[in-house]
Amino acid sequence: MSETYSIQVQNVSKIFTTQKKGRIEGFMALQNVSLQIRKGEFISLVGPSGCGKSTVLNHAAGLSLPSEGRILVNGQQVKALSVGIGYVTQEDNLFPWRTMIDNVTYGLELRGMNAKQRREKVAPLIEKVGLKGFEGHYPHQLSGGMRKRASIIRTLVLDPEIILMDEPFGPLDAQTRTLLQQELLDLWEGTGKTVVFVTHDLIESIALSDRVAVFTKAPGRIKSIYDIPFPRPRDVFNIHHIDGFNDLHDQIWSDIRGELAETKQEA
Ligand SMILES: Nc1ncnc2c1ncn2[C@@H]1O[C@H](COP(=O)(O)OP(=O)(O)OP(=O)(O)O)[C@@H](O)[C@H]1O
Predict the structure, then answer these.
(1) 3-class SS at 235?
(2) Residues 39-59: tens digit of each pLDDT
(3) Whose CA is nearest to atom 25 of ligand 1?
(4) Long-range contacts, 103-106 (Cβ 8 Å, 24+)
(5) Among protein residues, the one whose CA lies closest to atom 3 of ligand 1
(6) 18-29 mean pLDDT
(7) DSSP letter string, 169-195
(8) Ligand 1: distance of its center to the CA of 27 in Å?
(9) Minimal-distance CA residue to ligand 1 atom 28
(10) Rounded Cα distance, 128 and 57, in Å
(11) Which of the residues 62, 93, 140, 170 has an alpha carbon 20 to 30 A from that of 148?
């Protein structure tokens, strides 16, 4: 039932071809991955480095296509760049020559909105993430956390139904990370938007998500999917005190560790 799902990954395999010493070689990054992502859910993808998490996001965004199987977004097979999808990557990708406000309203500008309308539309988001007063700053005049906030609201202001986030808080210090995780939840709660979040941080994945999907080492397959039963709204700062948190964390970690151990033995 496509009305229930935002993204349907159906038996997807991906083989990348590379050239080594003049020879073409194939590398299987994903093998027969199926995953039904429900409308409005927050799902995290975790697993060893190189297991194909970003490749799944790229397929959903239409930046690359599966070698086998198919991906449906809102019931439509992805064959080119997907519409209605926001993508937040690890790098903030802000334009250095534009001020913060001109960066976060860039997409609205492309949509033909005038400067006054753009400012009005983005003002509540700027206020919500504490960037008020920094509208005229250039990216190099902002901290890493501020740049990350700007890049997230640049995506949110376009009001996408689906948001793909690839290790968005990766380069940040632990305190800023936690603050941003809480801000992200506060921004997302009640919007009905679907979020697919890639992370290496297991606590982050549990704190934010409705479900966590664990991938095997390459070629990536789905190893397990966990429901995260903790009530919302969540308090990211204290989530590790909730009953059941440690057990769930240990269970998921043991799945991931199994994959890491296998990778190490084979290396
Ligand atoms: N365009 C490409 N050409 C060739 N190989 C690729 C390409 N994109 C990804 N790969 C390979 O596919 C595998 C999966 O990559 P991907 O970036 O999806 O993994 P990941 O799970 O997101 O990794 P990480 O957690 O380290 O970011 C890796 O071995 C990577 O080198």
Answers:
(1) coil
(2) 999 999 999 999 999 999 999
(3) 49
(4) 103/139, 103/150, 103/154, 104/150, 104/153, 104/154, 104/157, 105/154, 105/157, 106/154
(5) 16
(6) 89
(7) TTTS-HHHHHHHHHHHHHHHTTS--EE
(8) 10
(9) 50
(10) 27
(11) 62
